[in-house]
Design goal:
With 434 residues, the chain is mainly α. The chain has helices at 12-38, 43-50, 66-92, 98-122, 140-149, 156-180, 187-205, 210-227, 232-241, 250-269, 273-289, 293-317, 324-331, 334-360, 372-381, 386-396, 400-430, and strands at 53-55, 63-65. β1 and β2 form a beta hairpin. The protein is globular and about 80 Å long.
Amino acid sequence: MKNQFVLQPRSMLERFVHQETSGSILLFAATVVALLWANSPWSASYVSLWKLPLSIGRRPLFSMDLHHWIDDGLMVLFFLVVGLEIKREIVKGELSSFRQAALPIIAALGGMLLPALLYFALNPSGLGARGWGIPMATDIGFAMGVLALLGKRIPSSLRVFMLALAIVDDVGAILVIAFFYTPTISLPALTVAGGLLALLIALAMRRAPISLYVVVGFFFWAAVLSSGVHATIAGVILGLIAPITPKFRPEELAESAEPLLRDFRAQILSHDKSSAEATLTGLDQLLRGTDSLAERLERTLHPWVCFLVLPLFALASAGVALSTDQLKLAYSSSIALGIFVGLLLGKAVGITLFSFLGVKLKIAGMADGLTWKGIAGVGLLAGVGFTVALFISGLSFGDENLVATAKVAVLAASLAAGLFGYVYLRLALKDNSL
């Protein structure tokens, strides 16, 4: 039997896209399980599981139910990876120059503003008014997963546009959470968080060991959590301040490694095992020096986020009881209508319209291989809100019925956007018009 080799993603961007699309399968499976469980004879166990109290130590700060530990704890890792992605793209990725960044930034602004305006037009006052941030979000994992289903015929320029747009969209969602979904502020805790942030920046500038960065980062998260600012903002900040430049450039590594390699060869030939192990340790430290802290954090955390954190979040958040009464409530609710119209129509029209205006006004340019049909298809796929939309749903409303209504609308709109986007792009591929 012949050996079969699988080509693995080589660059950071390729690894990111590969893990996002693979993780979206598990995310979808977790969503299905949550819905089936919440609508089964064992639905009471689903509700009681996430309300299970879990304490670490004796401090009230670390005493929350399981659902809050996922939202305020594990999801911090998701937003940390988002922060790392944003920094990578700004420093040396698709957002590193104005020419590259202009079109996805303008498109993302349209894809955030129009859904929020449509929602607000349908919910100008009352309890529903707080939900305007829900239809602004795009789920990058699911959107890239749908593109992956269409195969390699999708132009690479369209994939890059989708990825850059989704990252800018993440920035918008983070700002919305930080400024509009923070109910109360504790100035003493915020002061402590500010001091720890200054220490973290100093550690980043000095390229301190990653273990020290993690320890101080934990206390920074705790301070932000107790300040009233949503704890996930701590994750974004940690990602943005992580140094992205390595200690050594590849040519510097070669110069430093050459004498160590000579020593190692001599030690092996002379059977000097202890010296050879010490030399190997030195080589390992040199190799680690060619990796920045940001790259190491993203490479370590991203698989955990894709294959554990997000599926757990979906399992805890997507389990909505789809009773006849709940579906009737969602069907007649202006909140559900605002979310559905915002995600499905607002995203598609906003992204396409703002892209068109940006190009016509010569603020932005079209990348090679990018077409208007492709941009319209991305606009449809961007209506897959899911992860962040569900997250903001929980922040928007205190009433569980309103949260459930919002989640039903997010799930329905995301499913419709994914299907319409897939069919539209598939037809465009058949016509060779992408």
